[in-house]
Design a protein that fits this description.
The protein is an alpha/beta fold. It holds the Pfam family ABC_tran.
Length: 236
């Protein structure tokens, strides 16, 4: 398993008591698998993604990334693990206005200490993979919303992560552009063998998922397998 959450419980202070955001959540996502997480607003989807990204430490339970148990790891080691093994696609691309598409990706490699020439080659390869090879020199204001989101996805893959966490990537896009982005994430998951968790509010995208998990009041439920679509396929 590339991503394994076991018995995750997460609570937040709420006046004199505590509010349970995640309640004994367990989720396994093997490499090459796209797991979609759906649920109403406030159900715990964002908390689950933050825990999986090691950005929040749960009250109890374990998060294992590519065989590494993250429990108790110092901040520096967690930061290194995120740089090398976890790619995060945020809901908003948050691209730097002054940088071109290829430079947005190169920044990630520089943070990791890679050589500029190697970083540029990798960045151009990924822009080609997301269909933006001819947009490498354009800045964010020169790109459409869908193109900016594709740069966002390519940037998350820059350091060749084994785990890809995607937060509502289509929320600011129309249905057609959103479907294109979901198709891209699905293809890259299988081609690059990432363990991908996709948080989405749009159930029309669920047909692309290999597994579907529903979150309600902090509890997660995997749906029953649908055998005729192949092993590991889940539907609502």
């Amino acid at each position: 398993m590339s991503l394994n959450l076991t018995g995750i419980t997460l609570t937040y202070p709420d006046g004199d008591s505590r509010l349970t955001a995640l309640d004994q959540v367990t989720l396994d996502v093997p490499r090459g698998t796209l797991a979609a997480v759906v649920g109403p607003s406030g159900s715990g989807k964002s908390s689950l993604l933050a825990v999986a990204a090691t950005l929040i430490t749960p009250d109890s339970g374990t998060v294992t990334v590519d065989g590494t148990d993250t429990t108790g790891l110092p901040r520096g080691e967690l930061a290194a693990l995120r740089r090398h093994r976890i790619g995060i696609v945020f809901q908003q691309p948050n691209l730097l206005p002054s940088l071109t598409a290829v430079e947005q990706l190169q920044v990630m490699a520089r943070i990791d200490g890679r050589r500029p020439r190697t970083a540029q080659s990798r960045a151009r390869e990924l822009l080609d993979a997301v269909g933006l090879a001819d947009q490498a020199s354009r800045r964010p204001h020169q790109l459409s919303g869908g193109q900016r989101q594709r740069v966002n996805i390519a940037r998350a893959l820059m350091n060749d992560p084994t785990v890809l966490l995607v937060d509502e990537p289509t929320s600011a896009l129309d249905h057609e552009r959103g479907a294109t982005v979901i198709d891209l994430i699905t293809r890259l998951t299988h081609e690059r063998s990432t363990a991908t968790v996709l948080v989405t509010h749009d159930r029309t995208h669920l047909t692309a998922a290999d597994r579907i998990a529903e979150v309600h009041d902090g509890r997660l439920r995997l749906t029953a397998p649908l055998g005729q679509d192949g092993p590991g396929r889940y539907v609502v």
